[in-house]
Amino acid sequence: MNDQASRPMTPEEEIAEMRSHPRPTLRAVSEGMEKHLYTAQPVLDHGFVRVIDYMGDDAAITQAARVSYGKGTKSVQNDEGLIRYLMRHWHSTPFEMCEIKLHVKLPVFVARQWIRHRTANVNEYSARYSILDREFYIPPAEHLAAQSVVNNQGRGDVLEGEEAARVLEILKRDSNQAYDSYEAMISQDGQAGLARELARMNLPTNIYTQWYWKVDLHNLFHFLRLRADPHAQYEIRVYADAICEMVRDWVPFAYGAFEDYRMGAQQLSGKGVECLKRRLAGEVVTQENSGMSKGEWREFEAVWGDA
Length: 307
Ligand SMILES: Cc1cc2nc3c(=O)[nH]c(=O)nc-3n(C[C@H](O)[C@H](O)[C@H](O)COP(=O)(O)OP(=O)(O)OC[C@H]3O[C@@H](n4cnc5c(N)ncnc54)[C@H](O)[C@@H]3O)c2cc1C
Fold this sequence. Notes:
With about 300 residues, the protein is α+β, with helices and mostly antiparallel strands. The protein folds into three domains: about 5-135 and about 205-265, Gyrase A, domain 2 (2-Layer Sandwich); about 155-205; about 270-305, no CATH class. It is built from 14 helices and seven strands. The termini are far apart. The mean pLDDT is about 90. Catalyzes the reductive methylation of 2'-deoxyuridine-5'-monophosphate (dUMP) to 2'-deoxythymidine-5'-monophosphate (dTMP) while utilizing 5,10-methylenetetrahydrofolate (mTHF) as the methyl donor, and NADPH and FADH(2) as the reductant. Its EC number is 2.1.1.148. Belongs to the thymidylate synthase ThyX family.
C-alpha cells in the first residue's frame, strides 16, 4: 500500500486528484469556470470557497429565453444583448437554468447569515458525528473595529494599541479555553465521554464549519447583491467577493449584466424620480420641499449629491 493510499488525502492532493482526470462531455462547458473547478480559494484565516460542480453557461440562459420568446428574440441579435435585456426586465427564470455547487468553509456566525438565503440546497458538516477542528476565526488587526456610532448594524474606526491587543487576547483565550473544555468533555480516556452533539454547545460562533451549497444563478445573484454589497458584514462579504470572481469567469455576459443592472445600479423611489426631474428643470429642491423624510433625503443626497 503506498503512502497516499494508507492515509486520507490532504486537501491539495484531493484537488490534484480531482483535476487530473478530465473527461470528454457533450454538456455545456464554461472554459472560465473549468479553471476554478475543485480549487479552493482561501477566505479569512482558515476558510475557503471552491467550486465542486456547475451546470450551464451564458448560452444556456439565452437558449432557455429563446424557448419562451421564440421569434420575438430575433430583434436581439446576440447572446449578450439578450442577457442584458433579461436582466434589465427582471425576466429571471432563464438565469435559473444555470446552477453551481460550492464547498465552503466558514465561521459559524457567518454561516448563520448565509443560511438565511433559503433558495439553496445545503449539506453541512455534522458536529454530531464528527469532532470539530480547533480552528477559530480571529480577525486581523485591521478588521478589529469599534461599534459604529452612526449605524447600529455597522463598524466604526479600527481599534488600536492596547485595546486591540486586549480584544485579540480575549478572543484567542476564550476560543482555546472553550476548545480545551470541548476536548475534555468528549474524551473517552477513562470516562464515558459526553456525546459530540452536546459537547459542541459550549463552542463559540467563531469556530469553523463546512458545507456544500448548491444554488441557481438567479438566486446566487440575489445572494451576491446583498452580501457583496459594501454594507454587508466584512466576514461574509469576502466570501461573496470570492464567488463574484468565479461567476465572472463562469458566465461573463450574465455577470456583466448583473454588475451593471444590479450591483452598479441605484434604486429610485417615485419621490426620488420627481426630485431629480425638478432638479434637472433647474428647481432648487431641499428635504423640506422634497416630500422625503430626513433619512430618505440623506440617502438620496449620498447618491445624487446636494446640488
Ligand atoms: C444588510 C442586511 C442586514 C440584515 N439584518 C437582518 C436582521 O437584523 N435580522 C434578520 O432576521 N435578518 C436580517 N437580514 C437577513 C434578511 O432579512 C434576509 O433573510 C436575507 O437577506 C435573505 O434574503 P431573502 O429572504 O430575500 O433570500 P432567500 O431566502 O434566498 O429568498 C429569495 C426570495 O424568495 C422568496 N422566498 C423564499 N422563501 C420564502 C418564503 N418562505 N416565503 C415567502 N417568500 C419566500 C422571497 O421573495 C425572497 O426574497 C439581513 C440581511 C442583510 C443583507
